[in-house]
Write a structure and sequence with these properties.
Helix content: 25-40%
Structural class: alpha/beta
Number of helices: 7
CATH superfamily of the largest domain: NAD(P)-binding Rossmann-like Domain
Shape: globular
Strand content: 15-25%
Length: about 210
């Protein structure tokens, strides 16, 4: 894991399970947890209904934002305009796991090679019972990478951190691609590393930009 840069002042927007894990990850990399007014960057893991309103509030204070909340992407053009207006940096992602972002690249390559040969594609995603959006933001991102409509079944049960399975099925065989998170710690650390990467930047970004 790369060494952390100079300490950042981080404000946590939402202090549920993910917020607490982000706090732990940030402190492990020598960052400071502060109030919004003092923050260099704000990390949001809240609720889809609150996400865009939070972006408005933070943008008006000219705070850089890491947006881990999903379920609001239909308002992306509105958010892009807001980022441009206030000249802030905002990085959003349906999933901050480094493994998931590699998985998305694998899905894209598999779809390019298999779909022309009459494979059909479908997916299943599992999350904890508190997960609000369905299908998950990660499932939507996976579907987008295939380039075709994908029917994703959603399961909400217990405390499952997150599992995504994509099926490529033909008359002669089936290929299954799976990513399963063992805990949410990887999401939290990825969000903190995204905050480090965003420092000093303006504009709208995704995790894709971190890997360029």
């Amino acid at each position: 894991m790369p060494n952390p840069p100079s300490p950042l002042k981080v404000s946590l927007i939402g202090y549920g399970k993910m917020g607490k894990m982000v706090e732990k990850a940030a402190l492990s990399r020598n960052h400071l947890i502060v109030d919004v007014l003092e923050a260099d960057v704000c990390i949001d893991f809240t609720h889809p209904d609150a996400a865009v309103e939070n972006i408005y509030r933070l943008a008006e204070q000219r705070k850089n934002i890491i947006m881990g909340t999903t379920g609001w992407y239909e308002r992306l053009p509105e958010v892009e305009a807001l980022v441009k207006k206030y000249q802030i940096g905002l990085l959003y992602s349906p999933n901050f796991s480094l493994g998931v972002n590699l998985f998305l690249r694998i899905v894209e390559e598999a779809a390019k090679r298999l779909l022309p040969f009459n494979y059909h594609v479908a997916g299943v995603e599992w999350h904890h019972k508190e997960k609000v959006d369905s299908p998950s933001g990660t499932a939507l991102a996976i579907a987008k990478r295939t380039g075709v409509p994908v029917d994703f079944a959603s399961v909400r049960c217990g405390s499952i951190p997150g599992k995504h399975e994509l099926l490529f099925d033909s008359k002669v065989d089936q290929i299954t691609l799976t990513h399963e998170a063992r805990s949410r710690e990887g999401f939290a650390m990825g969000a903190v590393q995204a905050a480090e990467w965003l420092q000093g930047k303006t504009g709208l970004y995704t995790m894709e930009d971190m890997f360029k």
